[in-house]
Amino acid sequence: MPYESDRSKSRIIWVDLARAVAIGKHVMARNSRLTALDSLRGFGILLVVLGHTSRSAGLVSWIFSFHMPLFFIISGMLFHERQFLDSFKKKVARLLIPYLFFGIVTFAYWALIERRLRGGSGSVTNALTNIFLARAGTSNYPQNAVLWFLPCLFVTEMLFLGIFTLVKSKREIRYDWPVAATLATVSFLSIIAMHSFDLPIEQFRLPWALDILPFSMLFYCIGYLLSRFLMPCMRKSKPQASLHVVYAVIGMAGLGLLWVFDELTGLSVNLNSASTSNPFWMLCAASLGFISSLMLCVAIDCRLLQFLGRASLTIMCVHEPVKRVLISVMAKILGTNTDALRADLVYAMLVTVVTVAICVAVHLIMDRFAPMLIGSSRHNLASQGKSKA
Q1: What is the rounded distance in angstroms from the CA atom of residue 29 to the CA atom of residue 50?
Q2: Are the CB atoms for 133 and 207 separated by under 8 Å?
Q3: Given pLDDT bands bounded at 50, 70 and 90, which one contains residue 242?
Q4: Residue 48 sits in which domain range?
Q5: For residue 295, is it within any domain?
Q6: What does the DSSP assignment read for 306-360?
Q7: Which candidate in 23, 55, 157, 203 could, as Cys together with 343 as Cys, close a disulfide (CB 3.0–4.6 Å)?
Q8: What is the pLDDT of residues 158-198, one digit of tens each?
Q9: Where are the extended beta strands (E) located within the chain?
């Protein structure tokens, strides 16, 4: 009947309107508290590319002392308790699908093109099988050494959620922070044991980057604990303009102090090889680097950094092969060798900028035509909308 049809159409309109309002509120809430973290991810991914490009020992040591811990801390801050199976599906979509896609694509490029043009070491068979074994280390990922991060983050998040859910289901816990604090303590003690006994980790890499798990879990738990204090502050309105200068000065001073700290302690950190010269100094450096970088990002409130943060997964997975090509081309143009080029900070920064620009172009194209392959939240929201319709 016409009347029933009109009522049905009206109901559909109101449901769609309510859904749009709900999504709008979700996006506004997310933007209000995650803008600074997006900027921080953007700053972090610039450090990742520069750290993998430059051969300046002091600069690389400074970057490596906190750039990867920074990403695990951010992930811990964004932890959201939900059903395990639901979270598993989301993390597969956000982390493992991009991992497999970029792992296979970069392997094909390396095996079929780059090895023939540039030469280089690395077993093709080992590189192919390691896409599924996910053992960290440059020798296991000759095509793209940074890919270890995605399966490592996946295992870390799933294990944290699993333990968190299990403990809360077994007994009534008034406060949940002791769970994270206990996990952080156990992880840190494990790192101390690994360092003290000088375990031959490089010779016996574990599947799914499990040998890096003590490091990743430590910083993930620190992020979760920090979120109890920082998230309420980040939900508030933006700080006054006068405070931006104060935050910027403190942030830059902290990063400068970290450089001096690294030089004085001779600190060496490399999460890819699950190693550090001193676990305690590593913890201090990562904490100082994170807090200083966060304050700097809050102060400058840069939209470019926020965009780079949202594109950080694509940049992480694409920059290695792009960087290698750019370095080779630029070295030939300038008539120098690649090591000398990378040792020059100006050229290293130029390669970093061009590499990031190319990666951003790749991200924009894929986000438009294949968002699922880069774990885009736009695809996830669309999927949720279809499932609820």
Answers
A1: 32
A2: yes
A3: confident
A4: 39-377
A5: yes
A6: HHHHHTHHHHHHHHHHHHHHHHHHHHHHHTS-HHHHHHSHHHHHHHHHHHHHHHH
A7: 55
A8: 999 999 888 877 766 666 788 899 999 999 999 999 999 98
A9: 269-270, 275-276
| Contact between residue 319 and residue 352 where contact means Cβ atoms under 8 Å apart | no
In a domain, 32, yes or no: no
Structure token digits, residue 225: 């604990």
Task: Find the angle CA(57)-CA(60)-CA(62) to the nearest 5 degrees.
Answer: 105
Computed from CA positions of residues 291, 53, 93, 152, in that sequence, does the dihedral angle turn out positive or negative?
negative
Report the C-alpha gap between 363 and 365 in whole angstroms: 5
Give the span between the Cα atoms of 291 and 14, in whole angstroms.
45
Is residue 33 within 8 Å of 234, Cβ to Cβ?
Answer: yes
b/e code 363-380 from CB counts within 10 Å (16+ = b) = beebbeeebbbbbbeebe
What is the CB neighbour count within 10 angstroms for residue 71? 24
pLDDT tens-digit series, residues 203-214: 889 999 999 999
Provide the Cα torsion 104, 110, 113, 118; round to 10°: 180
**Structure-block tokens of residue 158:** 């799933």
HSE-CB of 13 using CA atoms within 13 angstroms: 6
> Do the domain assignments include residue 11?
no
Give the total number of structural domains in the chain.
1
Residue among 32, 33, 40 at smallest CA distance from 291: 40
